[in-house]
Structures are given as structure tokens and as C-alpha cells.
């Protein structure tokens, strides 16, 4: 038995039993505390810690993780492997260690041991990463009885292990579909060969998010219900188990660049099916601004905008029309980009104030709209009327558009600076010239003519 990081080879040694017992034994600091042990309903997962509430929380996380992965991997509700989780307190003043994952082969049965230190940074995600890795191996060995003590399981490719984890965590502030669709739109998406040959997550946060997004997209494409998922599950059972070889992708599983590009072509539509992009949210709001008051009595049909609705306050069809528009904006708010939440919230409040309605009070402190801010009754000015709220909506939209422009400028800057060092980059010569020009800014000791000569020499040297 040996520890492993999330992407190292998993192995076990003849001394596995002795080492496992040592790992599962309480440290001296906890020698007087009796560990609390809980088992999952099917008995497959066992968690032990000094605190019963902590034990229960870790057990719930492990159980839920395996339950959610089971249909994606084709695992039975109760497998043949057992998961032993030992929770220990983090050592004060020392760097938090990653969860320790080890395996032990007993006959044809592979059991997993996880040692988790709490508290720690991203502890829930790192623990889910360990359980995901164990579940993948559980699937891989379920149809293979040739493993023997001292053998090594094949190293899992990064796209498989990380992609499966991100599929599991999708929806928890991880809108990877948007990242992929933006890259496709800007012609920056990596090739399939690039994705398949990633070995480890980058320490650079931007590149790490990039890897996670495309690993997610590849795995989510392979695990869609129907034939793709069935083929993926079969591939896990039959893929090359030689640890010296990388897992290969057969043509039926998006094994060529053409199939990968075909998937990327669908990325924009798939992203739109989930959450609207910033641009689509803006377009949908523009469409929703139009409002039609139907004909009533001697009054003809009137088409206007939400901004100009106050002059029609006495219209007999106003109330029902506004209620329909509030429903439309509420549905848009649920799917719009988070930066559009304030604008939509104020427009909805303005419409409701026009017909003497107020937003319903929140029932719980968790009943928040999606995004960074809640637009319930407690955030709308108590005495604000229709005109005030329309003004706030305009201000929120102007602020949003300004921030979006700044964000776009930042993303463009990232593209330029990260591409500057790449061989063959279109930005390389420009970036090098810009760096040199920083040394030639006019100063007390430099004449204008002298600096011009320096700039010309730098430009000539760069373009040669």
C-alpha cells in the first residue's frame, strides 16, 4: 500500500495489511478518544472519526458521491469493494496534506482506504476527488479477475478522472459549458490530442480551469444517456489495463479529431440549453422589453416598452399583461448570466409596483436567487415607485455593460500575455517590442531624439 496523489498510479504491496492497520489506528493525540464509526446502509462505506457529527457528514458525502457516479459508471448499488474512511484532525502549524488514498487486494476484492485531515482548503472537493478515483477503479476491476497482489492498476488519464469529478460537481458554481462554448466561439478550443495528453492539473489557476472545463466536456459527452454512456461503460471494462500504456480512445468513443470538433460545434447550443451567456441574456432582455396591451372596449391594441408603461396605468388590461411579463422576466432571470440579475430584478420590481404588488417575502434565509445578490423584498427600496425602479434598472444595466467591457479587456490581456511566450504566437513580436519600449520611456537623462533612435533599433531587431 502506498499513498497517491489524484493522478498517480494506484498500487498495493505485500505489507499492505500492516500499513493499513497503522493508518487506521488512532494517533497518540486521540488515544483517549473513542472513535465514532458509522456504516452506509449497504455496509460498503465505513467512516470513523472522533466526532459523530463529522463522521455522519463524511459518510453522507461519500455515499452521495458513489450514488451519483453509479449510473454514469454502470456500478451496482452495492459493489464488491469496500471504502474505509478515517478522519483525523489537521496538525496545527503544518501544511494541510491531500487526502491519502490507498488500496488493498484481498483475493479478487479491492478495498480502498482514505485518510482525510480536517479542516483543510477545498476539503470536500478533494475528498470527492478521492472517492471518484476509487469508483473508477472499482468499475475497471469489476470485470477483471487477473489482478494479483503486487500488480499495479493502470494510471488513469487526467481527462477521465478530473472530467468525471467535474461532471459530478456540475452546477456548483461550475459553468464549464460556458467556458467551452466561449473557447469554441473564439477559435481557442484545444484539440482532442491535447486534452488526451494532459498529465496533471496545472498550478496556474486559469490553465487549471481550462483543463477542468474541457475534461468535463469530454466526459459529459461520453456519459450522455443512451448508447454513448453504454459504450463508455464498456470501454472502462475492456480498455488496455497495461500500466505502461495510456488509455486509448476507440473511434466509437470520439476517438478522432473530427468527432471532437463535431462535439465542440454543439457546445454553444448545449451551453445555451443550461444558462444563457452574457450576450444571449442581453438579447433576451431586449426582446422582453416589448410589451403589448390587448384591445379592450374602444381601446386599440398598444405596443410599448416596459420603460414607457407608466402612461398606460389606467388601461383595463394592464394588470394581467404585467403579471404575464413578470412571469416572463422571472423565467429569464432563472437562466440569465449572473451579471444581469440586478437589472432583471429591478425591472420586475418596477412592474409589480405599477400594479401595487410587492415581491413576496423570503421564507428562509437560503431562499436566494441565483447569483451574487438577492433581489427579494429586503433589497428593493421600501418607498421606491415605478420611476425610481426603472432608473435603478437603467443604472444596473449601464454598470453591467461597463464591467463586461472591462472583463473582456482583461480576458484579451490574458490571451495576449499567455500567448506571448508560445512559439509561433502572433503576439510574440508585439509583446517583445512592448517590453523593450518600457526601457526607453523619456526621462530626465534621455533626450527625445536619443529615445527615437533606441525605439527604431528595437523595432528593427524585433522584426528581423
Quick description:
By secondary structure, the chain is of the alpha/beta class. It folds into 4 domains: about 1-155, no CATH class; about 155-270, no CATH class; about 280-405, no CATH class; about 420-464, no CATH class.
Describe the structure.
The structure is a single chain. The chain is α/β, with parallel strands linked by helices. The chain has 4 domains: 1-153, no CATH class; 154-271, no CATH class; 278-403, no CATH class; 420-463, no CATH class. A hairpin with a 2-residue loop joins strand 4 (100-106) and strand 5 (109-118). The protein is globular, with a radius of gyration of 29 Å. The chain has 16 helices and 7 strands. Strands 1-2-3-5-4 form a 5-stranded mixed beta sheet, sandwiched between helices. The chain has a two-stranded antiparallel sheet with strand order 6-7.
User: Can you tell me the residue ranges where pLDDT is under 50 for at least 5 consecutive residues?
Assistant: 1-32, 360-378
The SS-based structural class is alpha/beta
Distance between the termini: 58 Å
Helix content: 40-55%
How many domain units? 4
What form results from the Cα inertia axes?
A: globular
How many helices does DSSP assign? 16
Largest sheet composition: 5 strands, mixed
Mean of residue pLDDT values: 75
The order of strands across the largest sheet is 1-2-3-5-4
Kindly estimate the percentage of residues that lie in beta strands according to DSSP: 5-15%
The succession of helices and strands, N to C, reads HEEHEEEHHHHHHHHHEEHHHHH
Count of extended strands: 7
Amino acid at each position: 500500500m502506498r499513498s497517491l496523489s489524484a493522478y498517480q498510479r494506484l498500487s498495493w504491496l505485500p505489507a499492505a495489511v500492516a500499513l493499513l492497520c497503522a493508518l487506521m489506528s488512532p494517533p497518540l493525540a486521540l488515544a483517549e478518544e473513542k472513535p465514532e464509526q458509522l456504516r452506509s446502509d449497504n455496509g460498503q462505506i465505513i467512516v470513523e472519526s472522533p466526532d459523530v457529527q463529522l463522521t455522519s457528514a463524511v459518510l453522507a458525502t461519500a455515499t452521495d458521491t458513489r450514488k451519483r457516479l453509479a449510473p454514469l459508471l454502470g456500478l451496482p448499488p452495492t459493489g464488491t469493494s469496500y471504502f474505509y474512511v478515517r478522519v483525523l484532525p489537521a496538525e496545527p502549524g503544518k501544511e494541510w496534506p491531500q487526502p491519502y488514498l490507498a488500496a488493498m487486494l484481498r483475493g479478487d476484492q479491492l478495498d480502498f482506504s482514505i485518510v482525510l485531515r480536517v479542516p483543510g482548503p477545498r476539503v470536500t472537493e478533494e475528498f470527492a476527488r478521492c472517492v471518484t478515483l476509487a469508483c473508477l477503479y472499482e468499475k475497471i476491476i469489476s470485470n477483471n479477475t487477473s489482478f494479483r497482489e503486487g500488480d499495479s492498476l493502470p494510471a488513469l488519464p487526467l481527462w477521465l478522472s478530473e472530467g468525471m469529478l467535474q461532471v459530478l460537481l456540475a452546477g456548483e458554481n461550475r459553468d464549464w459549458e460556458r467556458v467551452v462554448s466561449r473557447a469554441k466561439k473564439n477559435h481557442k478550443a484545444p484539440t482532442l490530442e491535447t486534452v488526451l495528453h494532459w498529465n496533471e492539473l496545472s498550478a496556474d489557476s486559469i490553465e487549471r480551469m481550462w483543463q477542468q472545463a474541457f475534461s468535463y466536456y469530454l466526459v459529459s459527452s461520453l456519459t450522455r444517456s443512451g448508447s454513448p454512456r453504454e459504450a463508455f461503460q464498456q470501454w472502462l471494462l475492456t480498455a488496455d489495463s497495461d500500466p505502461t500504456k495510456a488509455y486509448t480512445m476507440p473511434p466509437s468513443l470520439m476517438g478522432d479529431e473530427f468527432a471532437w470538433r463535431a462535439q465542440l460545434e454543439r457546445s454553444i447550443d448545449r451551453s445555451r440549453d443550461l444558462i444563457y451567456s452574457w450576450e444571449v441574456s442581453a438579447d433576451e432582455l431586449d426582446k422582453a422589453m416589448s410589451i403589448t396591451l390587448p384591445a379592450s372596449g374602444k381601446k386599440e391594441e398598444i405596443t410599448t416598452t416596459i420603460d414607457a408603461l407608466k402612461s398606460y396605468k389606467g388601461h383595463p388590461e394592464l394588470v394581467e399583461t404585467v403579471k404575464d411579463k413578470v412571469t416572463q422576466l422571472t423565467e429569464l432571470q432563472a437562466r440569465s448570466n449572473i451579471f444581469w440579475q440586478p437589472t432583471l430584478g429591478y425591472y420586475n420590481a418596477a412592474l409589480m409596483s405599477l400594479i401595487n404588488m410587492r415581491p413576496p417575502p423570503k421564507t428562509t434565509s437560503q431562499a436566494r436567487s441565483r447569483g451574487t445578490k438577492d433581489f427579494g423584498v429586503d433589497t428593493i427600496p421600501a418607498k421606491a415607485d415605478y420611476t425610481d425602479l426603472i432608473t435603478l434598472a437603467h443604472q444596473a444595466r449601464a454598470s453591467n455593460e461597463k464591467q463586461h467591457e472591462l472583463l473582456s479587456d482583461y480576458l484579451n490581456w490574458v490571451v495576449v500575455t499567455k500567448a506571448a511566450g508560445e512559439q509561433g504566437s502572433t503576439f510574440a513580436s508585439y509583446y517583445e517590442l512592448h517590453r523593450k519600449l518600457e526601457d526607453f520611456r523619456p526621462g530626465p537623462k534621455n533626450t527625445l531624439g536619443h529615445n527615437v533612435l533606441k525605439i527604431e533599433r528595437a523595432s528593427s531587431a524585433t522584426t528581423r
